[in-house]
Amino acid sequence: MAETVWSTDTGEAVYRSRDPVRNLRLRVHLQRITSSNFLHYQPAAELWKDLIDLATFRPQPTASGHRPEEDEEEEIVIGWQEKLFSQFEVDLYQNEAACQSPLDYQYRQEILKLENSGGKKNRRIFTYTDSDRYTNLEEHCQRMTTAASEVPSFLVERMANVRRRRQDRRGMEGGILKSRLVTWEPSEEFIRNNHVINTPLQTMHIMADLGPYKKLGYKKYEQVLCTLKVDSNGVITVKPDFTGLKGPYRIETEGEKQELWKYTIDNVSPLAQPEEEERERRVFKDLYGRHKEYLSSLVGTDFEMTVPGALRLFVNGEVVSAQGYEYDNLYVHFLVELPTTHWSSPAFQQLSGVTQTCTTKSLGVDKVAHFSYPFTFEAFFLHEDESSDALPEWPVLYCEVLSLDFWQRYRVEGYGAVVLPATPGSHTLTVSTWRPVELGMVAELRRFFIGGSLELEDLSYVRIPGSFKGERLSRFGLRTETTGTVTFRLHCLQQSRAFMESSSLRKRMRSVLDHLEGFSQQSSIHNVLEAFRRARRRMQEARESLPQDLVSPSGTLVS
């Protein structure tokens, strides 16, 4: 007789299935091998002395006509969450006084129906479903290691106390929140108590009653054959794994009469028939088709285009962070200024915003406040002046950094401005800021104790305001101090008919776009260009005022 190869790997296996878990079927085969008491305690010297015919160990018929060997081997197919009662539960629930919950009364009715229909089909193999009390107790008492003196950690105790949420449980609509969504100052105990994974799970245990013949129904003889756990994502955890090509698992009972049992677990879930697969494929195809039509209805069939000669600018931006400022509790007020000529925006468009108040966090030498505040806007550029001397301008992003104290009084921490990128794509911009200051200790004491500081009446005064029409903008006497920096992340998109037309309009618009692209580079020398233009104008005026005999035909002075 070949020696049995036992499977010693009793760890859990994880599977993922897209099919409904109700289609899961397991075949469990349980068989008693022999009395290990005889094999363990018989002296080796007596194994070959007075040999006894093996036929004497053959089970003898009982008075009822049943043979004990029928009780030593059992095979049964079990479905997901299928309830098979043990002998202990049959004896318990037949007594109505033992029923305490609605589930107990339901089990009592099912057991009475089974008794009237000829009894239950299982003998030793039974199950505990997700609704049974054993599932909760087993999760509370399970060990993490095989050590006899194991001391459960705090996390193990917390996980044991987690009540698994039922997958089919639905919350009440319109319910009132029992707690705050955000805890601004969590304590250490709060963090420890809420650092627990609470994934919806359903559990099922396949059990075996390994008691002696005609002594079934005792809790001490119950053994766990397999534990199944399924979550809402279709992840199935099996412990131990399906037998497959491996050897059977073994169980050795304890006590005076030690018994050796073997069992196997096989996945016998029915395969889908070709007709069912085709039907399921059609259902999914129809579902995806309806979803595609729904998305198309949201987008629309007509693609929205700009008017000829216009450029449409989309900006999806984010106020990332601010760092290097003196005080804590920062927030940023930002504003997008469109040039007065050629640019416009929809009436509903909001070109300004304020971030949330954010505390700073030490990062190296500086203190950084992370905002991650998103904003979006769109604008239109319509070029009407086709002369080459026209210098198109690009929108400017202004920002103002402020801080709040304990009494909700604010201070100005800095002003800054940056020209929006003229090229499409993702851009990360760092804006350096400054703030006006007053000389003397009194101003700083006032700023520290009662809040408030010098402010700009017009935020566009950070650079040359778009409404300024003079020749000189004097800032004489304005004392400033360099403060920190603000980081913006911008995703710019541009739309224009000129990008897909090959006519003269495309060439004309390409020229304008080249000017616009160059504006991002010339924004830093904008004052130089303006000064050069004014100098050329004054030179032209001076030429016109000179006598004609001093001016050559080329326009130069005659020495």
TrEMBL record:
Give the principal location in a single coarse category.
Answer: cytoplasm
Q: What is this protein called?
A: MKS transition zone complex subunit 1
| Record bears the keyword Transmembrane | no
Q: PANTHER family recorded for this chain?
A: B9 DOMAIN-CONTAINING (PTHR12968), TECTONIC-LIKE COMPLEX MEMBER MKS1 (PTHR12968:SF4)
Q: Name one GO cellular component term.
A: nucleoplasm
Which superkingdom? Answer: Eukaryota
Keyword Cell membrane among record annotations: no
Name the species this protein comes from.
Chlorocebus sabaeus
